[in-house]
Amino acid sequence: MNYLNRTRWVLLVSAVLLVLGACSKNEDSSKTNDKKTDDSKAEVIVSKVQRGPIHKAFAAMGTIAANDMARVIPKVAGRVLRIYVSEGSNVSAGQVLMQLSDAEYNLGVRGYAAVAKLAEVGVEKSKRDLARAESLHKEQAIAEQSYQDAQSQLEANKYQMEQAIAQVENAKKAVSECRVVSPISGTVTSKFVNEGELSAPQSPMPAFIVENMSKVKLEVDLSEDAFGYLDVGSKCMVTVDAIPDRTFEGVITKVFPSINAISKTFKVTITMDNADFKLRSGMTARAKVVQKARNDAIYAPKPAFLQGEEGFYVFKVSGGKVKKTPVKTGIEGDDTYEVLSGLQPGDFVVVEGQVGLNDGMEVKAKEKIAAPIQAPIPAPTVQPKGPETPASVQQKNPASYPNAK
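Above: the chain sequence. Below: its structure as tokens.
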């Protein structure tokens, strides 16, 4: 009897162990299947559709130069007696920069003054001679020819006196021009003379270079594609290599009328205020000339946009699935496209992993945080389309260009 009971207990325990093992296998199989199902989903990187400013700009590089510059060259030759300024000196218009020796020019003034005095004496004598000749001519005591000669001599002596007076004035002017002055207010950026040297108008280098840096300019070459979009007054953003953490506002003040036939570029002059004098001549500058912009736009990263037969489309992620969504684009920024239709702010679009995606496919999404876009300074506004003529379109400011995309 005990044997039978032991056998029953062994069979019962074995049965329980078999049941428990089967359940464990079913549970492990279920977990494995769930894992395989999750692993089968495509992994994608998504980015959020945002609202904010967007712009398109033409990029170019150039060198900063003073908007107003003077190469100071002495008008007379002479030895430099004294220099009153050095590089970096701030000067006002009319301020004396250096003094040349005026000794020889003062001697010239004295010599020409003596000649002028002699000419004046000759005029006085000619006047007396003419008065006597006129009296004798009335009495018919002298010939007509003698009377006319007295008149001509007076006129000749007057011309000689005027010439001598002019020479005196020129000599005095030469003396005054030995004081070399600055024609503009600004900063002395270069000095090419030293005390004791000879300086002359024919010198190969100017004596000084004075630059007014309160405003600076930048001349850049732009592709001919931009010619129809830009005009005087168009806004620009300028950065300089020497100040990498700051952006300066500029405005186009001149658009050169011709396009280089070889490089297919044209020049524009960009002017910037420089009240704090941070910008200096010779700095390398990079300009972005704003072609078109919108301050309040819906935009998404460029990698999200795929080209289809009927235009762009994106894969929008919602509820763990992707949806192929046609979109209409507007302004093309540096790294983004403006979205005119098809998406709303807050939507998520696939920016990496689009290969092999189909409409309705389940995906595992990971968000990529996009860097904020800075607005132009200030950003012009794109105006709605309206009736235009070819001539008006050619001359229109890019901020209101009707074909902005």
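Helices lie at 2-39, 103-138, 144-176, 390-395.
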